[in-house]
Write a structure and sequence with these properties.
Layout: E1 5-11, E2 19-27, E3 29-36, E4 39-46, E5 54-62, E6 71-79, E7 93-98, E8 101-107, H1 127-130, E9 132-140, E10 148-149, E11 153-156, E12 160-164, E13 168-170, E14 173-183, E15 205-215, E16 222-223, E17 227-229, E18 232-240, E19 243-254, E20 259-269, E21 274-282, E22 290-292, E23 297-301, E24 307-314, E25 319-327, E26 334-338, E27 341-346, E28 349-355, E29 361-368, E30 381-383, E31 387-391, E32 397-401
Antiparallel strand pairs: 1-2, 3-4, 4-5, 5-6, 7-8, 8-9, 9-10, 9-11, 12-14, 13-14, 14-15, 15-16, 15-17, 18-19, 19-20, 20-21, 22-23, 23-24, 24-25, 26-27, 27-28, 28-29, 30-31, 31-32
């Protein structure tokens, strides 16, 4: 399959429509980007052809003398038996595992069957893609003279894959979680009709969350055995040789009250097992958005009025504590934490707040945004006091002036 060449376009921050220069990046779709120490890191997906497997290409560009952005290095991870249809590039992340190791993390797409999770296997194209949960592509020795391309790491599961949460990294360890599902063995069987026919009932499922840790502190990555955790991973803190403190998030159906209950858990991970330290039930609607700054979490809730609360783990008490509340006019449908700021998106509206070191949230403004664009708030670039630059997919970038 022929791929068009990708281009990086350089514009003025004050006038994004004024094109200054264009950089040809070669064939391959841009699927991720990040800036660190005046260098721009770009990831491109290069599809397989008749002679070469698919590749994830990383280009490092020097931003010291804009508008010139010379390419310092280009590296490629070769990916056999992986298709772009297997991977959710919209959720791709660049994670700095430590000062000299980065890793691209790309979760897999959720696979569905025609009749729900109980028949999910029929929807799988092949064994390799069916079990894939996430892909991790590390680069080592970025502070040295010779960068090392560590082979791609496939995170797989023998269960039916459901979804993967955003990954976190600290002190040479990469933390990720994924959910699997299986048919509920205790589901009541349908009562046979008088005419002998068996009525169809919607199959129920049991969802299980798993923590997967990759140790990238040495030249040979160590993928630890998956560990059962109460819910999807939201944040990681206090990482050391003995383990880490995790905050996880889960939802369950309260049949008595006919509503979804959301719970947040503080979890201790000792490198082998996980132990729940605290559990807190949050009043909100099913699927309400959440975000994390890496150690603290932010949850949209509608207990008395629409708001976003900040939660963190208190090591002195061993409990989750609420550090801040941000009252909104309406329940947001998206939430992101970017460089000390919280962004809450709703139809035609973007609310912005700042978060201090103690976790206190302070509203800073409300702005009108287009109603017909899919805005990726978690990938927003911020020029403090100037503007927000929010990726809008194929439509480009939405600029929200902050003045």
């Amino acid at each position: 399959m022929r791929q068009h060449a990708a281009k990086a376009r350089i514009t003025l921050a004050a006038d994004p429509d004024q094109l200054i220069s264009t950089i040809d990046l070669g064939a391959g779709r841009i699927v991720g980007s990040a800036v660190r120490n005046n260098r721009l890191y770009l990831a491109q997906w290069v599809s397989a052809d008749d002679t070469q497997p698919a590749k994830l290409r990383t280009s490092i560009l020097d931003m010291a003398t804009p508008p010139q952005l010379p390419t310092l290095n280009t590296f490629e991870h070769k990916l056999t038996d992986v298709s772009e249809w297997d991977l959710n590039f919209a959720a791709a992340q660049l994670l700095w595992v430590n000062s000299s190791v980065l890793a691209w993390y790309v979760p897999a797409w959720q696979h569905w069957g025609w009749w729900g999770i109980a028949y999910d296997a029929s929807a799988k194209r092949d064994v390799a893609s069916a079990n894939l949960a996430a892909l991790v592509c590390p680069l080592r020795n970025l502070n040295g003279t010779s960068v090392i391309v560590t082979p791609a790491i496939r995170i797989t599961t023998t269960e039916s894959f459901r979804s993967a949460a955003p990954a976190r990294a600290q002190n040479g360890l990469l933390f990720l979680s994924f959910d699997t599902a299986s048919a509920d063995p205790d589901q009541p069987q349908p009562i046979i009709n008088d005419d002998g026919t068996i009525p169809w009932i919607m199959p129920t499922e049991i969802v299980q969350s798993w923590l997967q840790v990759i140790d990238l502190r040495t030249s040979t990555p160590i993928v630890r055995s998956p560990v059962s955790i109460p819910g999807a991973l939201l944040s990681v803190d206090q990482v050391d040789e003995q383990g880490a403190i995790l905050i996880t998030d889960s939802e369950s159906w309260d049949a008595a009250n006919e509503e979804t209950k959301r719970s947040v858990q503080a979890v201790a991970y000792d490198g082998v097992l996980a132990y729940q330290l605290d559990n807190r039930t949050i009043s909100n609607s099913a699927g309400a958005p959440s975000a994390s700054d890496g150690t603290r979490i932010f949850l949209a809730t509608a207990s008395s009025e629409p708001s976003v609360i900040a939660l963190g783990y208190n090591a002195s008490t061993g409990r989750l504590v609420q550090t801040g509340t941000w009252t909104l006019d309406a329940m947001p449908n998206s939430l992101a934490s970017v460089n000390g700021m919280l962004l809450a998106g709703n139809t035609g509206r973007l609310d912005v707040a700042s978060v201090d070191a103690a976790g206190t949230i302070a509203a800073t403004g409300t702005y009108a945004i287009p109603t017909n664009l899919w805005l990726q708030l978690e990938r927003t670039a911020i020029v403090p006091g100037e503007a927000l630059y929010i990726p809008a997919g194929a439509y480009g970038v939405e600029v929200v002036p902050l003045r």
